[in-house]
Amino acid sequence: MAGAPDLNESFTRSLATVLRQWTRHVDLQFRELGLSQARWRVLFELSRRQDVTQIELAHSLGIEGATLVRLLDRLEADGLVERHPCEDDRRAKRLHLTDGTKPLIDKMKKIAAASRAELLAEVSPDDLRTATRVLSQIETRLELLRSDQNG
């Protein structure tokens, strides 16, 4: 059920502000590892979803394919990512983190967990469950709207 327009606006503005500030907070911490936001986002997503195609990864990150290709070129040159041909479509590439990336990913996960703990320290578990439920409803609605727009 939709709330009053000013409540809707306040909520969405707060959501955007928190996302921007949270991302900036984490970004500053990952810079200590020599990672830009673009690089750590790719590495985190690949750590969650091994064996994805470049197209799937670009879609999941919300970036253009050409932008991702440049990022992957650098990550591959640094020995962090490997590309392998798809068995069913030789034009497509499947992405994998290299074995040498594991220590970096472990450090990233520790930093992210510490950041979450610090930022959410004063939020009750009940409030977190409510917020998670609300965000899930919004995400479901966005997916429905996107599928309607795509045909």
UniProtKB/TrEMBL annotation:
Residues 8-140 form the HTH marR-type domain. GO terms for molecular function: DNA binding; DNA-binding transcription factor activity. Keywords: DNA-binding, Transcription, Transcription regulation. One of its GO terms (biological process) is response to stress. Transmembrane segments: none annotated. Coiled coil: none annotated. This is MarR family transcriptional regulator.
